[in-house]
Amino acid sequence: MQGTAELIGTAWDTWLMSRVQRDIGRPAGPDLGAAVDSVAKRLLVEDLSNGLGQRATSAEPGPSAA
User: Fold this and answer.
1) Do 9 and 41 meet the contact criterion of CB atoms below 8 Å apart?
2) How far apart are CA 19 and CA 38, in angstroms?
3) What's the domain of life for this entry (predicted)?
């Protein structure tokens, strides 16, 4: 589950930071970057609370039968 949470958190952080950079036309400063990180973590908690982590884990391919 930790790997899934990390993957979802990184995806939110990357997506949100790219949107902010696009909207302001330059890389975010340290204060804005910290705010984006905080929002991304809140989105991660919301996703995990809604069961996204469990759905993502169950969707991972299992070992193939040979």
Assistant:
1) yes
2) 15
3) Bacteria
pLDDT tens-place string over residues 21-40: 898 898 778 888 888 888 88
Taking the C-alpha atoms of residue 21 and residue 7, their distance in angstroms, rounded to an integer, is 21
19 phi and psi, to 5 degrees? -65, -40
Q: What global pTM score does this model have? A: 0.57
Buried residues in 2-41 as b, exposed as e (16+ CB within 10 A) = eebbeebbeebbeebbeebeeeeeeebeeeeeeebbeebe
For residues 17 and 36, the answer to whether their CB atoms sit within 8 Å is: yes
- List the one residue out of 40, 3, 4, 5 whose CA is nearest residue 19: 40
